[in-house]
Design goal:
The chain has about 200 residues and is of the alpha+beta class. It has one domain (about 10-199): Gcn5-related N-acetyltransferase (GNAT) (Aminopeptidase). The protein has four helices and seven strands, in the order βααβββαβαββ. The chain has helices spanning about 20-45, 60-70, 130-145, 160-170; strands spanning about 10-15, 75-80, 85-90, 115-120, 150-155, 170-175, 190-199. A seven-stranded mixed beta sheet has the order 1-2-3-4-5-7-6. A hairpin with a 6-residue loop joins strand 2 (about 75-80) and strand 3. The protein starts with 10 loop residues before the first strand and ends with a strand. InterPro entries: Acyl_CoA_acyltransferase (IPR016181), GNAT_dom (IPR000182), YpeA/RimI_acetyltransf (IPR050680).
């Protein structure tokens, strides 16, 4: 189980509030998120930490707007609400086909499972514990929804992310084949490594 450390006080982390943002604020946040994900992808491209995101497809503006509307977008800001976006993730119950075949350690029904997607930290802020703080915020939000476990996946070649999740104490459930809509151009069997955090 990951250690629970308080978030760095330099960062304000909270779920995005669609009602408070309104349409214009939501559009502005989506712009910021797309820039964050593009910067993270550019910095990691070709490394052992490459998420291989296809900007405009995964993530897409519609995907991010839906996450905000559904209360599943958790955002971190440096220095408080008015400052630049520092990191983000999506937390929902959406599992890719193939999750059902994984030998999970926690026996949980669908409503008890939260899934983390698109976790990103601004490249210039890496090494400051923001990934840990974002995952802590995700755990708090998942518990508030009555979830018993968080699950996530990463490409088999994304060993940088795998090392990071293992340093956080997430349990590795092995490599498996998942069928995402996005084409990762990866014929490997299996193609994703799965992780689990019992809450």
């Amino acid at each position: 189980m990951p250690e629970r450390h308080p978030a760095d006080p330099a960062f304000a982390i909270a779920p995005a509030d669609a009602a408070a943002l309104g349409p214009a604020g939501t559009d502005a946040l989506v712009d910021e998120l797309m820039a964050l994900y593009a910067a993270a992808q550019e910095a990691a491209a070709g490394t052992d930490n490459d998420p291989r995101w296809a900007m405009g497809v995964h993530p897409s503006r519609a995907m991010l707007a839906d996450a905000i509307a559904g209360g599943g977008l958790i955002a971190a800001r440096e220095g408080g609400r008015a400052e630049r976006l520092a990191g983000a993730l999506i937390l929902n119950g959406e599992c890719a086909p193939g999750y059902e075949a994984v030998p999970w350690g926690v026996d949980a029904i669908a409503g008890e499972v939260a899934v983390v997607h698109l976790l990103a930290v601004r490249p210039d802020l890496r090494g400051r514990g923001l990934m840990r703080a974002l995952m802590g915020a995700a755990a708090q939000a998942a518990r508030a929804r009555g979830c018993r476990v968080i699950r996530l996946d990463t490409l088999v070649g994304n060993v940088g992310a795998q090392r990071a999740y293992e340093r956080l104490g997430l349990a590795c459930r092995g490599a498996h084949r998942l069928a995402y809509d996005a084409n990762y151009d990866n014929p490997a069997e299996p193609n994703f490594v799965l992780y689990e955090w019992e809450l």
